[in-house]
Structures are given as C-alpha cells and as structure tokens.
Amino acid sequence: MRFNHVANRIDAAHFELVVAMLRECLGFVELRRTERAIWLRQPGANVDLQFSRSATTARDDDKLRSQVAFLSDTPRADLQALADWLGARGLEAMVGAYSDREFYLDAPSAFVDFVIEAMRPELADYDIPA
Prior knowledge:
The chain is an alpha/beta fold. The protein has a single domain (about 5-55, about 60-125), classed as 2,3-Dihydroxybiphenyl 1,2-Dioxygenase, domain 1, CATH 3.10.180. It has helices spanning about 15-25, 75-90; strands spanning about 5-10, 30-35, 35-40, 50-55, 65-70, 95, 100-105, 115-120.
C-alpha cells in the first residue's frame, strides 16, 4: 500500500469558503469533487487532502490534536493571515499556540474534527530516505 490522502470534515455551511481559502491563499488545486467531498493538492506536495461536508452539530472537543499541518518560517503570521482572510468573509477564526514554534488556526463553526497547524521547518527535519 502507498499513502494517498488524509480526510477531514468541514461544516457544510462553510465548506466552499474553506475550499476557497485553501485555493486562493495556499495555492491548492482541485483534483476531484463529488456532491459531498473534494480532493485537493498543493503543488509540490505528494499527499492530498480530502474534505467532506458535514452536518454534525457536535464539534470534536479534542480537535486540537488533529491537524492539517504546514511548514512555515513564519507560522504565527501565516496563520494570522488566514484567520484575517476568513474573518473578512464573515467566518470567525483564531490563532493559538502549542509552543513557540507550533501554532494552530481554528474556525470553530467550520472545522469539525481538525485545526490547521503551521510549524517551523526544523520540527519536520527527519533523517528518512526518500
């Protein structure tokens, strides 16, 4: 087996807005779409994201432990830019910190079971052959 994608849930009411943010702000491209889900890839990456529309009203209380993670030299600032983008479009979003090198963005009404994380590149400097 070979790793292909990771799937998370987005509230159906905010689904298209979150997809637009990923496309406009982070350069993701749409790979495939169905009535209930979308598959996206960021150019240069080799793992895809699948997001499914969700009608659940109960958010995961422990969702800070489930992330869609990015590397960034300026993680807090980059996440704040995404929070500002969402806020300007009417979706409340906030940035928090796991440490001084790892930060997260939550949009509580949209993200059902995950947050978006950004961390310094050295945290993912693993010595694993390609």
